[in-house]
Amino acid sequence: MATYNDLRETLSLMNLLWAVPSKPEKWLSYETPEFHEDKEEAKKVHGWSELDLVQFNVCGMPAVWKIINFSIIAVPKLVIWVVLVSSGFHFLMETATITNLIVNSMALAFILSIDEMIFAAFSTVAVKHMMEKLEDHVLFEAEFEERETEEDVLRRYTSTDLGSGRWMSCYRWIIPRRLIFCLLLMGFFYWRYYINNCLLLPDGSWVSKPLRQPEGVGYNFLGFLVPSFLNYLDTSPLWSMPEAT
Predict the structure, then answer these.
(1) How far is CA 31 from CA 39, 53, 64, in A?
(2) Rounded CA gap, 200 and 197, in Å?
C-alpha cells in the first residue's frame, strides 16, 4: 500500500502540472474578510493574525517552469519508484523466512518515506507554513450542479442511478479499484521476477538461472537498474540447477 500511495502521489503531481494553466499567475494573495467591514474587529473575533490573511493557492505557471518541474521532480520521482519497487520486490522474493520478509517490507516502506522525513527535518518554518496553508487546485468546476433545480437533480438521478446505467454506477462504487490496481502491480513485478531470474522447464516448473561470474567487482549503476547491462565471463557457470535423475 505504501508503494501504491507513493505512485499515486507522483501521478497526481504529473496531472497537476498538466492541469494548471500555462501562464504566470500569483500563488500568494492578501485577502481581507468580506463578511466584516472592520478587519481588526474580524481578527479579534476569530483570533487571526496578519499571517492568517495571506492565502497560498496553486495557480498557473509558465510552460518553461512546467517542463523544469516535470524534468527534475516528477520524472526522477517516477524512475526512483520503479527502481526501488523492482529491487525491493526482488529482495522480498529472495527472503526465506517470514520474519525477514516483514522486516524487509518495513524497510521498503521506510525508504519511500525518506523524502518526507528530509522535508520535516531540514525545511524552514516559513516553507512548512506555506505547504500547510497551500490550497488545493480545483481540477473541475461544480457550477452546473449548483445551478440545477430540484427537478433537474431528481431527473438526472433517475436516469443515471435508476435507469439503464444503474448497474454500471453500482459497480463503479462497489468494485475496489485500488485493491485491483495493487494486485495488478504485484502480479506484474511477480511475473517480472520470474522472467529475469528463472527458467521455464518443459514440465512447467520454474528453476533459477545458472549463476555466472561477473567481469569485475566494480559498481555498475546501469546494471543495478537494468540487469541486462551486467557483463559476465564466458566460462562455465559457478552454479546451475542440478538435473533430476
Answers:
(1) 10, 6, 29
(2) 10
Neighbouring CB atoms inside 10 A of 4's CB total: 15
DSSP helix/strand/coil, 165: coil
C-alpha dihedral, 136 to 140 to 141 to 144, nearest 10°: -150
Place of cell 524534468: 71
Q: Scanning the structure block, which residue is given the C-alpha cell 506484474?
A: 188
At a CB cut-off of 8 Å and minimum separation 6, what does 23 contact?
A: 60, 61, 62
**The one-letter amino acid at 99:** T
Q: Are 213 and 235 in contact (CB under 8 A)?
A: yes
Grid coordinates of 244: 533430476
What DSSP letter does each residue of 79-131 carry, written as one string? HHHHHHHHHHHHHHHH--SHHHHHHHHHHHHHHHTHHHHHHHHHS-HHHHHHH
User: Which DSSP helix (H) or strand (E) runs through 135?
Assistant: strand 134-135
Q: Which amino acid, residue 117? A: M
- Report the DSSP pairing between strands 54-57 and 134-135: parallel
Q: Report the distance separating Cα 116 and Cα 157, nearest Å.
A: 42
Closest to 184 in 3D by CA, of 172, 173, 174, 176: 176
Count of alpha carbons within 13 angstroms of residue 109, beta-carbon side: 9
Please give the Cα distance from 191 to 198 (Å, whole number). 10
pLDDT tens figures, 140-175: 676 677 777 778 777 777 777 666 666 776 777 788
User: pTM of the full predicted structure?
Assistant: 0.73
Q: What letter would DSSP give residue 34?
A: T
Give 53-101 pLDDT, tens digit per residue: 888 888 888 999 999 999 999 998 898 888 888 888 888 888 878 888 8
